[in-house]
Design goal:
169 residues; alpha+beta; eight-stranded mixed beta sheet; 3 helices; 8 strands
């Protein structure tokens, strides 16, 4: 679990609704979490907070994409450092040279990627199993006194098991 911290002076808190989705961005009655995240967190830290909120291990490559329905067609991409699986996958899916245009999640702040209210990005976790989460900026607010972040503000629905049916084990 990520270490929690108080907001820095002048730092705002971003409230995100993070909803499990199907591969086409459908969220229907899917479980969701409302997360309170300091604006200076990186997208890497946001990804860690999301996986933690859904009780997933944080051990796979991931990215954030502006095309919710077809992540490979995204113009805006923020991705974890290149791993072997991701490199092979993107070499097959993207035109030459396009991979270099992606922004690194470890260097991109939440307030840079989510630069307008209600903005949505797809959080794609684990390029093998392809877990899809729709991440929407719902509100920007001042931090609560003495609160530590990241914080789960609301939890609706049971998180799906990361590795298949729990009864199979």
């Amino acid at each position: 679990m990520k270490k929690k911290r108080k907001a820095e002076e002048g730092e705002e808190i971003y409230l995100f609704k993070v909803t499990v989705s199907d591969w086409y961005g459908g969220i229907g009655e899917m479980p969701y979490r409302i997360l309170a995240i300091p604006e200076a967190f990186t997208l890497h830290e946001l990804a860690e907070s999301i996986t933690d909120a859904f009780n997933f291990d944080f051990d796979h490559a991931f990215g954030f994409y502006d095309n919710i329905k077809s992540w490979t067609d995204s113009v805006e991409r923020y991705e974890s450092p290149t791993g072997i699986t991701r490199s092979i996958l993107f070499a097959l899916l993207l035109p030459p040279g396009e991979l270099e245009d992606n922004r690194n999640v470890a260097r991109t702040k939440v307030n840079e990627a989510f630069d307008e209210p209600e903005k949505k990005l797809l959080f794609l976790y684990d390029y093998g199993d392809e877990w899809h989460f729709v991440v929407q900026l719902k509100e920007i607010r001042a931090p609560e006194k003495d609160a530590k972040y990241p914080q789960i503000v609301e939890s609706v629905g049971k998180a799906p098991p990361q590795y298949g049916d729990e009864d199979e084990e």
